[in-house]
Amino acid sequence: MTPALEVRDVRPHEHGPLGRLMVNVYANLEGFPSPDEQPAYYEMLANIGRFAEKKDTQVLVALSTTGAVVGGVVYFGDMAVYGSGGTATSETNASGIRLLGVDPAARGQGVGKALTKACLQLARARGHDQVILHTTQAMKVAWTMYEKLGFERSSDLDFLQERLPVFGFRLRWTDEAAQADGDRGSVR
């Protein structure tokens, strides 16, 4: 991981840069729908800062040593506002993670892992016993990271988003997961 990487709640002046980063990341995923195919989805990405207005929801940002936005994610402390298809929104005692994105120039530096661990810390602080996320085949590279952190495929959470298969993952707390989730450190 980049030693001086900062992960914290996004600030209003960072909403635009984070939204542009998200649109760029998702638009360039091979096999993922384009902005023309799913304009509402890309509008949501461009306005990712609005998620912070939802109940029990935080938008986290990762910043480089120069203060540049290099990644972001949305953490949901209440699955009722998670906003995915499928059954995830009815899960109880659970937190959710959506819309993880990392600047291609910062990949391989631990940005995605740091953002995910920050969400895990928030879930544990809330006392939730599981964390749920969704991903697609186009994001397969992230699957390995999620699995190393203790997430397992959970097909009961799968759904279709406009003909796009979306795959559910779940991490339930165990002693091993508590060790792996990075209880060290905190989100500012």
Walkthrough of the structure:
It is a single chain. With 188 residues, this protein is an alpha+beta fold. It has a single domain, classed as Aminopeptidase. It is 28% helix and 26% strand. The protein contains five helices and eight strands. The chain has helices at residues 15-27, 39-46, 111-126, 140-148, 175-180, and strands at residues 6-9, 57-63, 69-76, 94-102, 130-135, 152-153, 159-161, 164-172.
Provide the domain count.
1
* Percentage of β-strand residues: 25-35%
**CATH topology (fold) name:** Aminopeptidase
Overall strand count:
8
Structural class: alpha+beta
| Overall pLDDT | 89
Largest sheet: 8 strands, mixed
What CATH architecture do you see? 3-Layer(aba) Sandwich
At the first level of CATH, the class is Alpha Beta
Describe the structure using short key phrases.
8 strands; globular; 5 helices; 8-stranded mixed sheet; 188 residues; Aminopeptidase; alpha+beta
